[in-house]
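Structure ticket #2291
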Amino acid sequence: MRYMLCVIDTRPGTVDPSEVGVAIDAFNDQLEANGYWIMAAGIEPSHASTVVDNRGGKSQSSNGPLVQSDEYISGFWIVDVPSHEIALQLAHEGSKACNRKVDVRAFLR
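Resolution: structure written out below.
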């Protein structure tokens, strides 16, 4: 089963990446060694996003987040694991590694 483990942040640039980089690299290495790794990436803060709406040919876009919130997704892992329980275990480990909350979501079939 494939899951997206989303890293939840509250303020951009509040933690020095070098502080958590070693732990995240070790977690990523563990994912690869266990055959769970598909991909991972950090992403820009939500205020840097652009929302596009071309329903009905409107062709509209607006800068900024889809939803105003103090929390936003700052990165993610995509993993392929045998069970939901393993996905949750990995989310706990990833949360510890990046010192952030992690949201767990299964891919729809």
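Closing remark: The chain has a mean pLDDT of 91.
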